[in-house]
Amino acid sequence: MENIIQNICVIKDRIHKACIKSGRCPHDVKLLLATKTVPAERILMALRTGETLIAENKVQELKEKYDTLTAVPHINHFIGHLQSNKIKEVLKYEVSCLQSLDRLELAEKLHQRLLFEGKTMEVLIQVNTSNEDSKFGVHPDDAITLVREVAKLGTLKIKGLMTIGLLSADPEHVKPCFRLLKSIQQRLIDLDIPEVEMEELSMGMSGDLEIAIEEGATIIRVGTAIFGERMYPDSYYWDESITVNA
Ligand SMILES: *Cc1c(COP(=O)(O)O)cnc(C)c1O
């Protein structure tokens, strides 16, 4: 059994050191707990240490853990590939920010539902910075067009960008992915599109959070380094064409 409390301390220390190294303030980097496959009771342990930001990849898990997690106040983001037929549930289970908005078709359907419910929702645009087919996200060349289209809808409040980046044993290989995301963010800031905010850059995970922070991350998403190794390979979450026999 992993020691969640101690692991969170270690992560906080890594965030702190990376911030100091790059002349940033540790308060400007939010820690998001990536909770896929983690039982609700263990997530509660993390929330009780004072963490507030958590995210699931699948609507099914969001649903299963929802009741148990109401015991401690927290904020739900969503970081997985979202199918349009799951939109209602994402709203029902109080996801406040969809970090994985990667296509106009999804944005339009979400918009329709939000209009119907009289709500708005925060979103990050997910960009595929690593050119790997298996990962979701809008192509970097199409990101600005998508931002413009989504901004026109009115119910989706764009707060920034998200990327997964290249998965490599050498974290230096992921740096160009993070730089690319940062450069798209800068272009969007320069364009100053109405209703578009660009303060958030969600990038960096257990293995590469230091590099992400150096490159300007404002949200890092950490799973394994806090909750321990997962049973399923990440491809199960990142590529729906792969099925796992559980
Ligand atoms: C699982 C996941 C993470 C966390 O990855 P770790 O390597 O376990 O820290 C971050 N972002 C997304 C989108 C994920 O699916």
UniProtKB/TrEMBL annotation:
<feature type="domain" description="Alanine racemase N-terminal">
    <location>
        <begin position="29"/>
        <end position="229"/>
    </location>
</feature>
<dbReference type="GO" id="GO:0030170">
    <property type="term" value="F:pyridoxal phosphate binding"/>
</dbReference>
<dbReference type="Pfam" id="PF01168">
    <property type="entry name" value="Ala_racemase_N"/>
</dbReference>
<dbReference type="InterPro" id="IPR029066">
    <property type="entry name" value="PLP-binding_barrel"/>
</dbReference>
<protein>
    <recommendedName>
        <fullName>Pyridoxal phosphate homeostasis protein</fullName>
    </recommendedName>
</protein>
<feature type="modified residue" description="N6-(pyridoxal phosphate)lysine">
    <location>
        <position position="36"/>
    </location>
</feature>
<dbReference type="InterPro" id="IPR011078">
    <property type="entry name" value="PyrdxlP_homeostasis"/>
</dbReference>
<dbReference type="InterPro" id="IPR001608">
    <property type="entry name" value="Ala_racemase_N"/>
</dbReference>
<keyword id="KW-0663">Pyridoxal phosphate</keyword>
<comment type="similarity">
    <text>Belongs to the pyridoxal phosphate-binding protein YggS/PROSC family.</text>
</comment>
<comment type="function">
    <text>Pyridoxal 5'-phosphate (PLP)-binding protein, which is involved in PLP homeostasis.</text>
</comment>
